[in-house]
TrEMBL record:
Keywords: Oxidoreductase
Family of the protein in this entry: Belongs to the short-chain dehydrogenases/reductases (SDR) family.
Pfam families associated with the record: adh_short_C2
Organism: Mucilaginibacter gilvus
Official protein name in the record: Glucose 1-dehydrogenase
UniProt keyword Disulfide bond present: no
Length: 269
């Protein structure tokens, strides 16, 4: 087997696959042989571009619009993937956003929007995925597991973040969500894992890297001294979804250049 085809024949759904980390994950999974539903919330053109990149490289993909916080839309997305590819083997819960605000000024809408997309969205998508995985069971020629769920978290599942309490709370929630369903689903041969990216160069954190002074300030938080690239996360997701990671479930892998190592303590404390 070519090392790049470890997901051959498997069908994947990548939420928020139209931009940033999700885009790189969709491309990396396709590169490893998976057929990919590239989910988007609003930007159809961007999702089509990801589909084109995958198809131009000889892969299979299609774009599908769905707001992951809406139960009926999530069900429709899974139905579309199953209709097209027969089943779903891999779910990457990637869709997420920030609505930043000082705590005392944060509106209920800012709070609810972030919790709905970042946390409830992972609940709705994972539930549909788990039902499909349990119904189908293991297909040995495809994977040792009946299915894989990857929950995109953040270093902010452990690092508190002033001015971003809705986001940090959603990511802290993902940590326990991921572990709890991993415990419940392991007997069904379903693996559930988290990925906690640090500062990855994407549109979500553009203000933190778009000027040299902002980037220098950001690098003070990254011992490895470079900003992350979406591919750093894409490659990890493809590996975690593959049988090379078959004994990994219920844990989170940090891909952050050391951001979670409390770098402020390197010369202090
Ligand atoms: C956030 C980014 C931030 C990074 C490190 C991510 O989860 O979405 O905006 O740069 O964490 O703080």
């Amino acid at each position: 087997m070519k090392t790049t085809q470890k997901l051959k024949g498997q069908a994947a759904i990548v939420t928020g696959g139209d931009s940033g980390i999700g885009r790189a994950v969709a491309i990396a999974l396709a590169d490893a042989g998976a057929k990919v539903l590239v989910n988007f919330a609003h930007n159809h053109d961007a999702a089509d571009e990801v589909v084109k990149i995958i198809k131009d490289a000889g892969g299979k993909a299609f774009a599908f619009q769905c707001d992951v916080s809406k139960e009926d839309e999530v069900k429709a997305m899974f139905a579309a993937a199953i209709k097209k590819y027969g089943t779903v083997d891999i779910l990457v819960n990637n869709a997420g956003l920030q609505k930043d605000s000082k705590f005392v000024d944060m509106t209920l809408e800012q709070w609810n929007t972030v919790i709905s997309i970042n946390l409830t969205g992972q609940f709705l998508c994972s539930r549909e995925a788990a039902k499909e995985f349990m119904k189908r069971g293991v297909v040995e020629k495809r994977s040792a597991a009946a299915g894989k769920i990857i929950c995109m978290s953040s270093v902010h599942e452990i690092i508190p973040w002033a001015g971003h309490v809705n986001y940090a709370a959603s990511k802290g929630g993902i940590s326990m969500f991921m572990k709890s369903i991993a415990q419940e689903l392991a007997p069904h041969k379903i693996r559930v894992v988290g990925i906690a990216p640090g500062a990855i160069q994407t549109p979500i954190n553009k203000p933190a890297w778009e000027t040299p002074s902002a980037l220098n300030k950001l690098l003070e938080l990254i011992p490895y001294n470079r900003i992350g690239q979406p591919q750093d996360v894409g490659k990890l997701a493809a590996w975690l979804a593959s049988d090379d990671a078959d004994y990994i479930t219920g844990t989170t892998i940090f891909v952050d250049g050391g951001m979670a190592l409390y770098p402020g303590f390197a010369d202090n404390g």
